[in-house]
Amino acid sequence: KQEVTQIPAALSVPEGENLVLNCSFTDSAIYNLQWFRQDPGKGLTSLLLIQSSQREQTSGRLNASLDKSSGRSTLYIAASQPGDSATYLCAVWTGTASKLTFGTGTRLQVTL
Amino acid sequence: KAGVTQTPRYLIKTRGQQVTLSCSPISGHRSVSWYQQTPGQGLQFLFEYFSETQRNKGNFPGRFSGRQFSNSRSEMNVSTLELGDSALYLCASRRLAGGPTDTQYFGPGTRLTVL
Q1: Cross-chain CB nearest to A43 (options B58, B100, B109)
Q2: d(C-alpha A94, C-alpha B41), whole Å
């Protein structure tokens, strides 16, 4: 059974800092890994999708990497802004299951 | 292009009642999945529909059911509501099933409160 863990559970950083969010998964037989952002009480916004054959994806100030063999992914946020404050979730699509398995999330607060 | 829409956005029900939630996928998307999000359990998969057929089901009791219509719109029904069913119910669509490389796009969710 696939299990996804995110560390840390919460993070507070001053504006302008670069930061890294971590995601680990137990079953390396994944098709892809997706990073989402969720604002309080809202739905999920897809940030980056990394296919199992890829090592990283970039979008603006965001860079996500994937090391499938070790079951790890990181989301790097450069020059953080208060508007980046949200919960970040990673999710994996595992080969045998037609569904996303989500991590527990990292709640990020970027302070002025 | 309109995103995934869910109605209603908020619902308050009492124990024992039933509820129906609706989801309209992005135009051209044929797969609709439902997820339950609670503070204690996080995001959990309920089921996925494609071409009006349930393709996969999560570990939820039979009180949770769903269906998909020919226009890909989907409904989820919960019967005999329990306090523990209070949650944010999220719907997600993707272009086609069988292609796990597709990105899933999520709606804003329906917040269900059971009193």
Answers
A1: B109
A2: 19
